[in-house]
Amino acid sequence: MSDVIFDCTELYQNPIRTGIQRVVREMLRNWPDDGPRLHVVRYDVDRALVRLSEQAVRVLADQEAGTDCLSRDEIALRLAAVDAPPPEPLPEDAVYFIPEVFYDTLRCRYYECLMKAHGKTLAMLGYDFIVYLKPHLFNLRTCLGQIEYLRLIAKAQHVAHISEATRRDYEGRILHAGSPRKGPVLPLGADGLNMERQTWHPDRRNFVALGSIDQRKNQQMIFEAFRMLWRDGHDARLTLIGRAFAAADIAWLDEARNYEQFQWLDEASDENIRRELAAARCTIYVSEAEGYGLPPVESLAVGIPVITTAAMPSLEGLPTVGQIRLEDVTAAAIAEAVETMLTDKAASRLWKDLRQLELSGWADLGSQTALWLETVSADRDHGVATAMETVRLTGTS
User: Fold this and answer.
1) Alpha-carbon gap, residue 240 to 267, rounded angstroms
2) Whether 128 and 266 share a structural domain
3) Which of 81, 172, 204, 355 has the highest local Cβ count within 10 Å?
């Protein structure tokens, strides 16, 4: 079993606790003791791959005392103080693994060179390709900044995916037609809230929508649904949790703040999330496009039902217990689902049914990733040939 060179450059440069950085952090935290040995590195334009010290890795993984409550800037300062690169060289026969998305052209070309000129084995974790396939959701006119990354992930010998949906996009839209390559799906953990399982009570009147405010997550549509309900005299509160992207149109929030039943918390801290969920009757997550969609499964994992879309990748293949899945996402459809949840009988049934649902945790991601990379190593050592695909970069939808 070969060692693994684990590239976490994005986490190192921007050690936030959300998004892809959160996945990488949890992977480090939950790496199994009997898995391949990790050599954690970051890319540097002058020095190529720089190995991180063991203490720096523990800081990034929140395994040092007190690091789990530090801000991004405080973590960066701690890293600068402890990150003295160990002197030993990286192993020659290791598998290279990138569990991140990045748009650094030089970093992409470095890994292409490792594969083509030096015969190295590269494994990557694919998240989603929404920026390329649906740039209008991000107010982008061009996807040129993503091209080098897309070329790299198409050329990597081994690619795993976070959902069946992202695997379909990869095989159907990124790889050359007719050359599918079945990488495994490694579902993300639903147990990241560190919160005890919640219990039903009719006094729960709050609905929580968690996620950064942007065009695709439809928070404005959620507000419009609640505005309809409030005008009809319904007693329900709506809380949005998440920062607004700079390009997002948030003028509607000015009107929303006029309603006493509404609040927006722009900091998605663990404290804010746990406090609001402790009073929540239901969560709402109706994003138009996702590679996975953690908030719905995290809500379900702590026993709280969710209103979501029928096409949510994180729910594909799961029983529908504890969920109201919307085929068409409109303000009227959201309002109807909320009205259903405001009925104590219907809400209590969804809460009760949810007890039978079992979900994957972050430890499962760590162990399954380690097992997959062991297979990658074994395939290479046994001379299994994997074709180098050519990327198809034509058109968007």
Assistant:
1) 10
2) no
3) 204
